[in-house]
Design a protein that fits this description.
The complex is a heterodimer.
Chain A: H1 7-13, E1 18-23, H2 33-41, E2 47-50, H3 62-71, E3 76-81, H4 87-99, E4 104-108, H5 129-142, E5 159-164, H6 174-184, E6 188-193, H7 197-209, E7 217-222, H8 228-237, H9 245-252, H10 259-274, E8 280-285, H11 294-300
Parallel strand pairs in A: 1-2, 1-8, 2-3, 3-4, 4-5, 5-6, 6-7, 7-8
Helix pairs in contact in A: 4-5, 6-7
Chain B: E1 2-6, H1 9-16, E2 21-27, H2 30-33, H3 39-56, E3 61-67, E4 88-91, H4 95-104, E5 109-112, E6 114-124, E7 127-132, H5 148-151, H6 172-175, H7 182-193
Parallel strand pairs in B: 2-3, 2-4, 4-5
Antiparallel strand pairs in B: 1-6, 6-7
Classes of the chains: A alpha/beta, B alpha/beta.
Amino acid sequence: MTTTPSKLEKIIKSGQYAVTSECGPPRNGNPEGIAKKAELIKDHVDAINVTDNQTAVVRQCSLASCIRLKLMGLEPVLQMVTRDRNRIALQSDILGATAFGISNVLCLTGDHQRFGDHPSAVNVFDYDSTKLIQTVKMMRDDGRLQGGFEMHEHRPNMFIGAAENPFADPFEIRALRLAKKVEAGAQFIQTQCIYNMDKFKAWMKEVRALGLHEKVAILAGLTPMKNVGMAKYMKNRVPGMDVPDSVVKRLQGVPKDKQASEGIKMLIEQIEELKQEEGVRGFHIMAIEWEEKVPEIVEAAGLYPRPSVN
Amino acid sequence: MIVAKPKPIGEIIDMIKDLNKVLVAGCNGCVAVCEAGGLKEVEVLASALRMHFMQEGKRMEIDEVSLTRQCDKEYFQPIDDQIDKYDAVVSLACGAGIQYMAENFGEKVIFPGVDTCFIGVTLEQGVWSERCQACGQCVLATTGGICPIARCSKRMLNGPCGGSEDGKCEISIVLGRDVPCGWHLIYERLKKMGQLDRFAHPSEDKDWIASRDGGPREITREDVRP
């Protein structure tokens, strides 16, 4: 039974693989930025995440961009980080999203602002991702704001998502932490980009041992590598990213002009392998500034056409 | 203790360069322990300033004093009858001491000689580390005696986040030094203590009213009032 009007939820509940992707808004006020990216992928994904000032770099706001997608008739996933807004602003944005019929939210804590283009900014972190999940659930199920106010109508009706990184440390608590997010109210999970398949499978084993795969839909996060440089950067400079040497070596093994297609090929192989993993309910394809490749990936992975649901 | 670090001397010179008679006032509390504002640091700073202005050929009288504390009124008494002689005071106390001196000496100009940084501990000689953010509602009983507010860069109550790697916080990459992941420490300690059940469920709500967010704080305790 579905709990919200979310198309993403309906597809997941139908037992079919869900496919999501994400778009980063522009670093200016261009009204077409997000729309252009969405046009490239809209027929090949079920929902489109809009990032919220990712890596703490100022961009057009996630909520405004999600509204634009909604007005285009698309299905946005509103990413919200707790880094920049306190509980007042977070709940206010949830209500604003509700007013525009947005029905998917991804609750995140967010990268530390020292990574971004305003390292001297104050950070908020009034809540963390788990608390944000609880808050959205309370607003939806109890019709209450954190302060106690009761909404008698127009409650947010959000399909609640969160992220999890199976590759961060300590490894043994990563499934436990997922359990906390599920207890808080998470209904779907988009994972950190998977490159270390063995570790991901080890994590899934623990997830299944805790029975979490039956309570939350896990969408495997995947990012195609464009070249060796990107692989090395992800390996060494992106916190919480686990890129095994074998991935770097495989890209190094092909000529430079073939590395991009090798990266795509690698990702399609991963999807095939992940389809065998019990509990994986879909794929979150993060083609960073490479959205035009999403249709090709989805088709090659046998995930096209996308199902239609009412 | 409250940990401070000496301000760059250039900054202090800039503050006092147009004056003629300045008192450098140390504090023998926390800032003496962290070697930023005690008797020794007063001597060092006063000598450096004298030398600087002598070389510049500028007449500048620098006196020194080290007070027991600058956060209690009675300890200002030794300078009560001398303060008028000075154009300004450079206080090496923490931010609280500097302000209390200003509050106690009317319109006297009081300059800060240190940057007050955090509540922390001495890890080894010359190395201090933050441990407490004075949030006003201690959670240490539930977190294995390690504070998530002070030691997690995102002050998460349900950590660690996805950026924790090899026991290090994600900001280690940009800082260029290893910052331990507070939640990794909490987890390891809870495990040792046999209290991992504390980690199992989402944390209680944090009420920031007791923290700075509730407005400037003041405590009145009738049990110890005269």
